[in-house]
Protein backbone atom coordinates (compact mmCIF):
# COMPACT_ATOMS: atom_id res chain seq x y z
CA UNK A 1 0.00 0.00 0.00
CA UNK A 2 3.02 2.32 0.09
CA UNK A 3 4.03 1.96 -3.56
CA UNK A 4 1.78 4.82 -4.65
CA UNK A 5 -1.03 4.54 -7.17
CA UNK A 6 -0.87 1.95 -9.91
CA UNK A 7 -1.57 -1.73 -10.58
CA UNK A 8 0.72 -2.76 -7.71
CA UNK A 9 -1.78 -1.58 -5.08
CA UNK A 10 -4.87 -2.89 -6.84
CA UNK A 11 -7.50 -4.10 -4.39
CA UNK A 12 -8.15 -7.82 -5.06
CA UNK A 13 -11.81 -7.26 -4.14
CA UNK A 14 -12.09 -4.56 -6.85
CA UNK A 15 -13.91 -2.31 -4.38
CA UNK A 16 -13.23 1.00 -6.19
CA UNK A 17 -14.32 -0.53 -9.51
CA UNK A 18 -17.52 -1.88 -8.00
CA UNK A 19 -18.27 1.47 -6.44
CA UNK A 20 -17.60 3.18 -9.77
CA UNK A 21 -20.05 0.86 -11.51
CA UNK A 22 -22.62 1.52 -8.78
CA UNK A 23 -22.33 5.24 -9.63
CA UNK A 24 -22.80 4.35 -13.33
CA UNK A 25 -25.94 2.34 -12.54
CA UNK A 26 -27.29 5.20 -10.49
CA UNK A 27 -26.59 7.63 -13.36
CA UNK A 28 -28.54 5.29 -15.63
CA UNK A 29 -31.51 5.31 -13.23
CA UNK A 30 -31.38 9.10 -13.11
CA UNK A 31 -31.34 9.21 -16.92
CA UNK A 32 -34.46 7.02 -17.14
CA UNK A 33 -36.25 9.23 -14.61
CA UNK A 34 -35.16 12.36 -16.53
CA UNK A 35 -36.40 10.94 -19.87
CA UNK A 36 -39.79 10.16 -18.28
CA UNK A 37 -39.83 13.69 -16.84
CA UNK A 38 -39.16 15.27 -20.25
CA UNK A 39 -41.87 13.08 -21.81
CA UNK A 40 -44.36 14.22 -19.14
CA UNK A 41 -43.35 17.88 -19.45
CA UNK A 42 -43.80 17.93 -23.25
CA UNK A 43 -46.86 15.67 -23.26
CA UNK A 44 -49.62 18.24 -23.78
CA UNK A 45 -47.89 20.02 -26.69
CA UNK A 46 -45.38 22.86 -26.42
CA UNK A 47 -46.16 25.47 -23.78
CA UNK A 48 -44.04 27.95 -21.84
CA UNK A 49 -44.56 26.06 -18.56
CA UNK A 50 -43.77 22.75 -20.24
CA UNK A 51 -40.52 24.08 -21.71
CA UNK A 52 -39.46 25.57 -18.35
CA UNK A 53 -40.17 22.26 -16.58
CA UNK A 54 -38.27 20.41 -19.30
CA UNK A 55 -35.24 22.70 -18.94
CA UNK A 56 -35.37 22.33 -15.15
CA UNK A 57 -35.40 18.53 -15.34
CA UNK A 58 -32.51 18.54 -17.85
CA UNK A 59 -30.58 20.86 -15.51
CA UNK A 60 -31.17 18.50 -12.58
CA UNK A 61 -30.00 15.58 -14.68
CA UNK A 62 -26.84 17.48 -15.64
CA UNK A 63 -26.27 18.34 -11.97
CA UNK A 64 -26.49 14.67 -11.03
CA UNK A 65 -24.16 13.76 -13.91
CA UNK A 66 -21.63 16.28 -12.63
CA UNK A 67 -21.67 14.81 -9.10
CA UNK A 68 -21.32 11.27 -10.46
CA UNK A 69 -18.53 12.25 -12.82
CA UNK A 70 -16.62 13.96 -10.00
CA UNK A 71 -16.84 10.86 -7.84
CA UNK A 72 -16.06 8.41 -10.69
CA UNK A 73 -12.90 10.37 -11.50
CA UNK A 74 -11.81 10.24 -7.86
CA UNK A 75 -12.42 6.47 -7.76
CA UNK A 76 -10.59 5.87 -11.04
CA UNK A 77 -7.48 7.78 -9.96
CA UNK A 78 -5.87 4.64 -8.51
CA UNK A 79 -4.68 3.90 -4.99
CA UNK A 80 -6.98 3.80 -1.95
CA UNK A 81 -9.75 6.26 -2.84
CA UNK A 82 -10.86 9.01 -0.43
CA UNK A 83 -14.21 8.58 1.34
CA UNK A 84 -17.29 10.08 -0.27
CA UNK A 85 -17.77 13.69 0.86
CA UNK A 86 -21.17 14.22 2.52
CA UNK A 87 -21.61 17.31 0.36
CA UNK A 88 -21.58 15.16 -2.81
CA UNK A 89 -24.03 12.65 -1.31
CA UNK A 90 -26.36 15.49 -0.29
CA UNK A 91 -26.09 17.10 -3.74
CA UNK A 92 -27.05 13.81 -5.44
CA UNK A 93 -30.01 13.36 -3.08
CA UNK A 94 -31.13 16.97 -3.61
CA UNK A 95 -31.15 16.41 -7.39
CA UNK A 96 -33.38 13.35 -6.94
CA UNK A 97 -35.71 15.22 -4.57
CA UNK A 98 -35.98 18.23 -6.88
CA UNK A 99 -36.86 15.87 -9.73
CA UNK A 100 -39.63 14.40 -7.55
CA UNK A 101 -40.87 17.93 -6.80
CA UNK A 102 -40.96 18.74 -10.53
CA UNK A 103 -42.86 15.49 -11.05
CA UNK A 104 -45.41 16.40 -8.38
CA UNK A 105 -45.99 19.82 -9.99
CA UNK A 106 -46.29 18.27 -13.48
CA UNK A 107 -48.65 15.50 -12.36
CA UNK A 108 -51.02 17.82 -10.46
CA UNK B 1 -35.07 15.42 17.48
CA UNK B 2 -31.75 17.16 18.21
CA UNK B 3 -29.97 14.00 17.07
CA UNK B 4 -31.78 14.31 13.74
CA UNK B 5 -30.79 17.98 13.40
CA UNK B 6 -27.19 17.05 14.16
CA UNK B 7 -27.34 14.39 11.43
CA UNK B 8 -28.67 16.97 8.95
CA UNK B 9 -25.73 19.24 9.78
CA UNK B 10 -23.39 16.32 9.06
CA UNK B 11 -24.89 15.91 5.57
CA UNK B 12 -23.08 19.07 4.50
CA UNK B 13 -19.92 18.92 6.61
CA UNK B 14 -17.23 16.40 5.61
CA UNK B 15 -14.72 17.67 8.13
CA UNK B 16 -17.12 17.01 11.01
CA UNK B 17 -17.66 13.40 9.97
CA UNK B 18 -13.89 13.00 9.76
CA UNK B 19 -13.49 14.34 13.31
CA UNK B 20 -15.33 11.34 14.70
CA UNK B 21 -13.32 8.27 15.74
CA UNK B 22 -10.55 6.84 13.55
CA UNK B 23 -10.26 6.46 9.78
CA UNK B 24 -11.68 3.01 8.89
CA UNK B 25 -10.50 0.61 6.19
CA UNK B 26 -11.51 2.35 2.95
CA UNK B 27 -13.35 -0.82 1.83
CA UNK B 28 -15.92 -0.32 4.60
CA UNK B 29 -16.53 3.25 3.47
CA UNK B 30 -16.90 2.13 -0.15
CA UNK B 31 -19.37 -0.62 0.83
CA UNK B 32 -21.39 1.99 2.75
CA UNK B 33 -21.27 4.26 -0.32
CA UNK B 34 -22.60 1.45 -2.55
CA UNK B 35 -25.46 0.85 -0.13
CA UNK B 36 -26.25 4.56 -0.27
CA UNK B 37 -26.25 4.41 -4.08
CA UNK B 38 -28.53 1.36 -4.06
CA UNK B 39 -31.05 3.29 -1.92
CA UNK B 40 -30.72 6.30 -4.22
CA UNK B 41 -31.48 4.06 -7.21
CA UNK B 42 -34.55 2.76 -5.39
CA UNK B 43 -35.65 6.36 -4.84
CA UNK B 44 -35.08 7.24 -8.51
CA UNK B 45 -37.03 4.13 -9.58
CA UNK B 46 -39.96 5.18 -7.37
CA UNK B 47 -39.85 8.69 -8.89
CA UNK B 48 -39.75 7.15 -12.37
CA UNK B 49 -42.74 5.01 -11.34
CA UNK B 50 -44.62 8.17 -10.37
CA UNK B 51 -44.02 9.60 -13.84
CA UNK B 52 -44.97 6.28 -15.43
CA UNK B 53 -48.33 6.11 -13.60
CA UNK B 54 -49.12 9.60 -14.87
CA UNK B 55 -48.04 8.82 -18.43
CA UNK B 56 -49.15 5.26 -19.04
CA UNK B 57 -52.52 5.14 -17.24
CA UNK B 58 -54.21 8.10 -18.95
CA UNK B 59 -57.69 6.52 -18.86
CA UNK B 60 -57.74 6.43 -15.08
CA UNK B 61 -59.88 8.88 -13.13
CA UNK B 62 -57.86 12.02 -12.28
CA UNK B 63 -57.98 11.55 -8.51
CA UNK B 64 -56.73 7.96 -8.65
CA UNK B 65 -54.00 8.74 -11.14
CA UNK B 66 -52.69 11.73 -9.17
CA UNK B 67 -53.06 9.92 -5.85
CA UNK B 68 -51.04 6.91 -6.99
CA UNK B 69 -48.41 9.09 -8.66
CA UNK B 70 -48.04 11.28 -5.56
CA UNK B 71 -47.78 8.20 -3.30
CA UNK B 72 -44.90 6.88 -5.42
CA UNK B 73 -43.21 10.30 -5.61
CA UNK B 74 -43.56 10.78 -1.84
CA UNK B 75 -42.03 7.36 -1.25
CA UNK B 76 -39.18 8.37 -3.57
CA UNK B 77 -38.49 11.57 -1.65
CA UNK B 78 -38.56 9.76 1.72
CA UNK B 79 -36.30 7.05 0.33
CA UNK B 80 -33.67 9.52 -0.91
CA UNK B 81 -33.73 11.46 2.39
CA UNK B 82 -33.34 8.22 4.28
CA UNK B 83 -30.49 7.18 1.96
CA UNK B 84 -28.26 10.11 2.91
CA UNK B 85 -29.28 10.04 6.58
CA UNK B 86 -28.55 6.33 6.92
CA UNK B 87 -25.25 6.77 5.08
CA UNK B 88 -24.12 9.46 7.54
CA UNK B 89 -25.18 7.36 10.54
CA UNK B 90 -23.40 4.26 9.23
CA UNK B 91 -20.26 6.22 8.38
CA UNK B 92 -20.16 7.60 11.92
CA UNK B 93 -20.78 4.19 13.49
CA UNK B 94 -17.97 2.67 11.38
CA UNK B 95 -15.56 5.41 12.43
CA UNK B 96 -16.45 5.01 16.11
CA UNK B 97 -16.35 1.21 15.92
CA UNK B 98 -19.97 0.95 17.09
CA UNK B 99 -22.72 -1.38 15.84
CA UNK B 100 -24.42 -0.25 12.63
CA UNK B 101 -27.76 1.48 13.22
CA UNK B 102 -30.85 -0.73 12.97
CA UNK B 103 -33.72 0.56 10.89
CA UNK B 104 -37.36 -0.27 10.27
CA UNK B 105 -37.43 1.78 7.06
CA UNK B 106 -37.01 -1.23 4.68
CA UNK B 107 -40.08 -2.94 6.16
CA UNK B 108 -42.05 0.32 5.98
CA UNK B 109 -41.06 0.94 2.36
CA UNK B 110 -41.96 -2.59 1.27
CA UNK B 111 -45.37 -2.25 2.93
CA UNK B 112 -46.00 1.06 1.13
CA UNK B 113 -44.93 -0.40 -2.23
CA UNK B 114 -47.13 -3.47 -1.68
CA UNK B 115 -50.15 -1.31 -0.83
CA UNK B 116 -49.61 0.93 -3.87
CA UNK B 117 -49.25 -2.13 -6.11
CA UNK B 118 -52.47 -3.73 -4.81
CA UNK B 119 -54.38 -0.43 -5.14
CA UNK B 120 -53.05 -0.04 -8.69
CA UNK B 121 -54.20 -3.53 -9.70
CA UNK B 122 -57.67 -2.99 -8.17
CA UNK B 123 -58.08 0.47 -9.67
CA UNK B 124 -56.95 -0.61 -13.13
CA UNK B 125 -59.28 -3.65 -13.10
CA UNK B 126 -62.35 -1.97 -11.59
CA UNK B 127 -62.20 1.68 -12.58
CA UNK B 128 -60.69 1.41 -16.05
CA UNK B 129 -63.34 3.53 -17.81
CA UNK B 130 -63.09 6.21 -15.07
TrEMBL record, chain A:
| Topology relative to the membrane | Multi-pass membrane protein
Q: So which domain of life are we looking at? A: Bacteria
InterPro entries in the cross-refs: DUF202
**Domain annotation DUF202: ranges:** 11-74
Tell me where the transmembrane regions lie. Answer: 48-67, 88-107
> Looking at the keywords, is Ion transport present?
no
Q: Which compartments does it reside in? A: Endomembrane system
Please provide the record's keywords in A-Z order: Membrane, Transmembrane, Transmembrane helix
Q: What is this protein called?
A: DUF202 domain-containing protein
UniProtKB/TrEMBL annotation, chain B:
Q: Where is the DUF202 domain?
A: 27-92
Q: Which InterPro entries has this protein been placed in?
A: DUF202, IM_YidH-like
Entry's localization field: Cell membrane
Q: In the UniProt record, does the keyword tRNA-binding occur?
A: no
From which source organism is this entry?
Streptomyces musisoli
Topology of the protein relative to the lipid bilayer:
Multi-pass membrane protein
Does the record's keyword annotation contain Cell membrane? yes
Q: What is this protein called?
A: DUF202 domain-containing protein
The protein's matches in Pfam families, at most eight in alphabetical order, are given as: DUF202 (PF02656)
